[in-house]
Amino acid sequence: MTAPVFVVEEVPTGAEFVLDGPEGRHAVSVKRLNPGEQVVLTDGRGGWAEGVVKAAEGKDRLVVAVAAAGREEEPAVRITVVQALPKGDRGELAVETMTETGVDAIVPWQASRCITQWRGDRGAKSLAKWRATAREAGKQSRRVRFPEVAEAMSTKQVASLLAGADLAMVLHEDRDTPSQALATAELPAGGSIVLVVGPEGGVSPEELEVFAAAGAHPHRLGRSVLRTSTAGTAAAAVLLARTGRWA
Question: Is the pTM above the cut of 0.85?
Fold first, then answer.
């Protein structure tokens, strides 16, 4: 088993560090870590420190002897998934599995055919859930660089994001719309890939036109039609394997 990951505000630079608060409570009272066990501390932005538990004090204090520290650099090819808002808690499912898979950024998208609407307090709460899900999934999957979850974007804002990418794609499967297989698309050796995943009702013709004007064209996976909450994860897996990040 790999060492459990705990999030800290700043990666420790000294020889000893006390993990307390909610993370300390989780380590002591939930994980029940004991002296001699290994842990990883991360700021979620690439910084990390490896250490060994020296002592567990009370219910929420873990004393860690820091053995090494460093920083994981950003990947040569950065993958961003623009995720149309799914219904119910399927949005958190999409964020969780994409984080575990290894995407670098997730952008909520208010597509025209989305049933779910992020407005006011509901939108703020939903965004907070997505961000909390990414954080917890990042810890669970032993990442030290968690995906950024952006503010929800409109179609116009997504088009602007696509225009600045080294490769922009729309995951779209329609017998009346020509598309290229994602498995054979030419990928950049470096820079950014931005992939749009539409809602259950699909990307509208008007949105496809806007995205095409920004340089993003339709791509498809296999013969199966995936739900919006799983399509991003499947597509990210293809891209991660083909860019060598899963090598």
Answer: yes
